[in-house]
Write a structure and sequence with these properties.
Elements lengths: L1 E4 L3 H13 L4 E4 L2 H8 L6 E5 L7 H10 L8 E5 L4 H9 L4 E4 L4 H22 E4 L2 E4 L4 E4 L2 E3 L3 H12 L5 E2 H9 L8 H14 L6 E4 L3 E4 L4
Parallel strand pairs: 1-2, 1-3, 3-4, 4-5
Antiparallel strand pairs: 6-7, 7-8, 8-9, 10-12, 11-12
Helix pairs in contact: 1-5, 6-7, 6-8
Length: 224
């Protein structure tokens, strides 16, 4: 799904039509308020964002997208008016992945979108682990549940990271003690149970992804 935020209804309709004709799903919005409302229900693959909008300008919206954990990773291509180099620089410095200079052709737009999706897709694959509605960003050490950031202790994060790196693999309590707490840790395996319990609680519905294997230990479901 591509979101097109463009104040000009004619240009917006043409962009959405061109995207759908190229095999993308697309929706159009004429202001930042509509975009923010749509983001509560759906996270797009990419956002085409015009700088000139009737309520908040595109640069302000971009900064807010980058500051919120649920939208920080969404690729954004800014649309700028011809000759406004300042807008291009500010947009890129604020976190835009690319920009288009108006008036632009639909083939150029499609080409830029595909290039950004290829680039950001490869980057996301390297740094993000996913399991159902759970995301773990290895670069930022953040965890999202249903798009909302949750706070974990260091040991809880390391436990979750271990499970998500090896979906479907069973770990004994002794193995987890060695991996997370170190070979010289003098505590008992009950420590693992306590931390898994608090981790499950913080993950909410996603806590059920971590299975207890009676007489063995724990594993996380293998998602496909």
């Amino acid at each position: 799904m591509i979101f097109c935020v463009e104040n000009d209804s004619g240009a917006r309709d043409l962009m959405v039509y061109a995207l759908r004709s190229s095999g993308f799903s697309a929706r159009g919005f004429d202001c930042g308020r509509e975009l923010k409302h749509a983001l509560k229900a759906e996270k797009p693959q990419l956002i085409l964002l015009d700088i000139m909008l009737p309520d908040e300008d595109g640069i302000t919206l971009l900064k807010k997208l980058r500051q919120h954990p649920a939208t920080a990773h969404i690729p954004v291509i800014m649309a700028t008016a011809k000759g406004t180099e300042y807008d291009k620089v500010i947009g890129l410095d604020s976190g835009a992945d690319d920009y288009l200079v108006k008036p632009f052709g639909m083939m150029e737009m499609i080409s830029r979108i595909k290039a950004v999706l290829r680039r950001t897709g490869a980057r996301e694959a390297e740094k993000t682990l996913r399991a159902g509605d759970l995301e773990l960003n290895q670069e930022a050490c953040t965890v999202l549940v249903h798009g909302e950031r949750i706070l974990l202790t260091r040991k809880e994060y390391e436990l979750l990271h271990t499970f998500m790196e090896h979906p479907g693999r069973a770990f004994t309590r002794d193995q987890l003690l060695e991996l997370i707490w170190g070979m010289d840790y003098a505590g008992e395996t009950r420590t693992v149970d306590v931390h898994v319990g608090t981790l499950r609680t913080k993950l909410g519905p996603c806590g059920n992804y971590i299975e207890t294997l009676r007489g063995v230990g724990y594993r996380m479901e293998g998602f496909r």
